[in-house]
Structures are given as structure tokens and as C-alpha cells.
Design a protein that fits this description.
By secondary structure, this protein is of the alpha+beta class. The protein is 25% helix and 24% strand. A hairpin with a 2-residue loop joins strand 3 and strand 4. Helix 2 crosses helix 4. The longest helix has 16 residues.
Length: 214
Amino acid sequence: KFEKELSYRIRQDILVKPFTSIFDASINPTGYINTLKHVGHCGDGYEWEEELYGRHMIVVPIAIPDFLIERELGYMKGIMGANFWYYCNNKKSVLECGRAALKAIESVEGVITPFDICSAASKPETNYPWIGPTTNHPYCPTLQNLLGKESRVPKGVEYIPEIVINGLDMESLKKAMKVGIEVMLENENVLGISAGNYGGKLGDYKIHLKELFP
């Protein structure tokens, strides 16, 4: 299933972008995925294999020549879903503070921010289970009047962006969260920092913000 889902991401998000290629950058991988079946065959039989850049590559001919993907991509286990929220009162701060935090997080090895600045905070409970996670309504600024006391949006806050971090291990995730939050704390337009907890219902790992700043 993982191999198939990964192929969707590659075919729909990467292969269709001009001048993109995919190389194996795994570190001590658990195993390897053969990319020919689910990605290479996008060439409809016209794809070929070639030694390029010291790697065994599949060349998929496309209208902007050409998409390259390494024949085998390594995979390993990691941890996904570490996150923190930052409370803002204007759009400019959402983008400027978020981009500054993302740049700081880039310096941490072994982590990625899959959504960059994420605007769609979600929760595990939902009225529509077939959709999956739905909006985290207590934290939606436009629902403050409707929800009344149920709203968890602090006074003066208009936006609650989220940065989600996936990583190879807890040490890397904690370091990434800390450097990202430190950048936020330097900006007076960030009114507060929090994180999605969900009552501990999601995942086997917990990172408490207070542990990052003892």
C-alpha cells in the first residue's frame, strides 16, 4: 500500500512539474522500492533505463524532456505529525513568521515540513467519518461568535497557522520544533504558541512544548 500511495504523490505532484527528478537519499534504509511498475511505466512502454550521475535511473519521456527517477528508492521508518501553532493578528505575520520558521527548520537534518505553512487545522473526531479528519472548529476564528464559550481562539487572534514536521527520530523532531518556535518568539506579531494535542489520541509519541524550553 505504501508503494502505491507514494507513486500517486510522485506521479501527480512531482512528475508533472518541469525539470524535476527523484534520487534516492535514504540513510541506512530498511528496504527499497522498485519504481518501475508504478512510476516508470508512466512512459507507456517508451521509458528506458540508463546510468546517469552515478545512479541507475529510469528516464520517462514527457513533453518537457524528461522526468528522471532512480530505479530503487530506499525507505525507513520515521515519526510524522509533530506540530506547533502560532497565533497571529494579521496576514503578513502568518507568511513572514511562517517562512522564517521554515527556513530555520531546514537547517535540522532528518526532518521535513510536508505542508509548509498549514492553514487547515484538523481534529480526529468528525461528523463525517468517510471524509477523515475535519476542521478543528474551536480554533476557527470565524466561528467565535457562533461557538461562544466553546471557542478556544484567544482575544485579538485572527489566524492560527500550523507547521507540521515529520522526521527520522524524536531527537530531530524536538530540535526542529525548538528552532522553529524560537524564531517565532522573536517576532512581536506572534501573540502565542500552542500545538495540536487531541487529548493524546493520535500516535504513540508525545512532544510537550514545555519540555523544549525547560
